[in-house]
Amino acid sequence: MLDYQAILEEIHQSLNSVKDTGEVASYIPELANVPKEKFGIHLQLITGENFSVGDASEKLSIQSISKVLSLTKAFQLVGNHLWERMDVEPSGNPFNHLSLLELENGIPRNPLINSGAIVVADILLSNLKNPKKDFLDFVRNLAHDNTISFNEKVAESERLNGYNNYAAANLLKSYGNLHNNVEDVLDFYFHQCSIMMDCRQLTNAFFVYANKGKCLKNIQHLTASQVKRINAIMLTCGFYDEAGEFAFEVGLPGKSGVGGGIVALLPHCFTIATWAPALNPQGNSYLGMKALEHFTTKTKLSIF
Ligand code: DON
């Protein structure tokens, strides 16, 4: 077997000295306070073994990584009706762009850009009794960890500055693709994005996508077909206008967030999470992408 611990340490060490790694997200002011030099990696094999390096057990704001989890819950609840309200095509645009949404009559290109995730949030609001509580319980359940929580400060910081998401939600509403009111949908969306998890918890929660829909405790949450579809969406849309680059460099389905986290997985083999808050111009973690590129190159483990 490969010496995974040694591989993670080698990657961590070789990248830790890189200077020009980009900027921490500041459009959500609360995220601008996160120290730029944080860097952690956690790997979990499908067999249950875990390997960790650096700041992998410190909590980060999962931000857009939550879009995969909300999509999963909505897929469970409404099945293929999801695709009546959004598409599954890569957007080739930044995560918060609005122009395609107008051109395509209020149907978001995919569930992982902001407008798509806002429609998913609307679906959850319509189908859950206590949306925020039920969604948090769902995430805790997937990760088998009841300590996972919202960060109210981050949610409020985003609400006070979320003009772009208000624009997206209002545009969706004008096309009839938002059934609840804008304020309620965005309150839910900002809370889902504010969830705090560490790298290990992220690999726990994403285990289900590497394990044919069964979580760590072997409970079936998704059908094999649903897992196939969610992994395909992560591969083609998980990194916005850098999805091609991520497939090219790393070769795994995955998802990033502006908190600097990335989770990726190889079906039937492993889940891996990285955290490094400085972002490249596309809003993806600079060191996280590099670390994953090194990992799949060194181990020769990728879907290609
Ligand atoms: O809606 C937003 O802009 C943020 N809550 C999430 C964006 C995000 O994480 C983009 N990913 N890299």
TrEMBL record:
Residues given in the record as substrate binding sites = 64, 114, 158, 165, 189, 240, 258
The enzyme's first-digit EC class, named in words, is: hydrolase
Identify the domain of life.
Answer: Bacteria
Is the keyword Nucleus in the record?
no
* A biological process term (GO) from this entry: L-glutamine catabolic process
List the Gene Ontology MF annotations in alphabetical order.
Answer: glutaminase activity
Which residues, by range, are in coiled-coil regions?
none
- Give the Enzyme Commission number: 3.5.1.2
Keyword vocabulary terms for this entry:
Acetylation, Hydrolase
What PANTHER family is this protein classified in?
GLUTAMINASE
User: What is the protein's given name?
Assistant: Glutaminase
**What species is given as this protein's source?**
Aequorivita vitellina
Gene symbol here is: glsA
